[in-house]
Amino acid sequence: MCTSALWLMCVSVLFGTSLSCFQCFVDVQDSLRLCWGHILTEHNIRNVDACFRKLDRIFNNHEEVIEAGRVGEGYEKQLKEILNAEILPMTEEFDKKLNNDTVYEERLQTAADNFIAAASKLPRGETCLWMFPSMCISFVHPSGFQSAGAVYNCITCQYDACEFPLDCPVKEIKTTENSRSRVWCDVPFRLPSDIEVIWRFAEEVKTQQVDQFKEVTAGVDRLYSIPSTSLQHQGTYQCEIYSGQRSIVRLYYYLTVTPQVVAGHTELQEIFDLSLLPGGQLLPAPGGPPHSLLLLLHPSPLLLTACLTALLLLLFLSLGALFWSSALEQASQADEETDGDEDLGF
């Protein structure tokens, strides 16, 4: 059994290889005061070492205690307050007093259960990006830093930051010429409030080579918008998000732009190919009227234009003939009146 002069060394040996929320937040001196009067009931002797082993079993090697302590960044103070609220009153009660090991077992287990219940209600850390394999393939190096994913680790008494692949695979985006295009720099986790977003562009090529990109915008906007896409916009767009001086993630999007004429021609060709029979005749609808009747029921724009033009021409010709006939009739009447005047001697 450890003497009073060696208590600190004993605690270090007993807890040195496995820490817990207990060791993270309860001072060594308070642990010594707590275990000072621990009595082994079977032998009726005081044994501090056995008390430390009991603490190790109930707190250090208790998975539920460790999991309850995995809180989000900034909540370790609340963890300490919860645990001290359970342990310190017990320390004051047991200090310099003898208590059987069965009493220690019951009281410490109750303290652990109360800690689990209270600590589990604290906010958890965000889920790491590696939980989303569809977004990023697992690369070994380099790695980005996701501060929002940091969680407190009662084994190390530190926050474990979530590291994930910095470069994600290239995502394909297709659009047509003269259309509006939007590219979102979106990630499935919460970002810090002080982010900076830099958009870069590598014209015509599909690449992740950093030296091939040129910076196009920098700011906080995670949306890159092209009002009217042209062939010059085809290429790879890189979005890199920073927090402070630390790069969080780089996303890549390859934009393919199809010329509008080619797109229209392709659609018409597909429709025409589907409409033709093997002999080159138009394919009527199943059970529908013959082709000649289809043209009457569903005339093409060209046929409608020709019909309208012919009608307008016929209308103009009719009006012209009517006008010409009326003019001739008026001229004939004028000649007859002139001849009548001459006969009467006027």
Main sheet: which strands, in order across?
Answer: 6-12-11-8-9
Percent helix, as a range, is 40-55%
How many helices?
Answer: 10
The low-confidence runs, each spanning 5 or more residues with pLDDT under 50, are 1-18, 129-135, 137-143, 291-296, 340-346
Describe this structure in words.
The chain is α+β, with helices and mostly antiparallel strands and 346 residues long. The protein is 42% helix and 23% strand. It contains 10 helices and 12 strands. Strands 6-12-11-8-9 form a 5-stranded mixed β-sheet. It has a 3-stranded mixed β-sheet with strand order 2-1-3. It has a two-stranded antiparallel sheet with strand order 4-5. A hairpin with a 4-residue loop joins strand 1 (38-40) and strand 2. Helix 3 (28-35) packs parallel to helix 6 (76-94).
Brief summary:
The chain is α+β, with helices and mostly antiparallel strands.
Break the fold down into its secondary structure elements and pairings.
Layout: H1 7-15, H2 21-25, H3 28-35, E1 38-40, E2 45-46, H4 48-60, H5 63-68, H6 76-94, E3 99-100, H7 101-119, E4 143-153, E5 158-165, E6 167-176, E7 181-184, E8 195-203, E9 214-219, E10 223-226, E11 235-243, E12 246-258, H8 260-275, H9 291-297, H10 301-344
Parallel strand pairs: 1-3, 6-12
Antiparallel strand pairs: 1-2, 4-5, 7-10, 8-9, 8-11, 11-12
Defining key terms:
five-stranded mixed sheet; 12 strands; alpha+beta; disordered N terminus; 346 residues; three-stranded mixed sheet
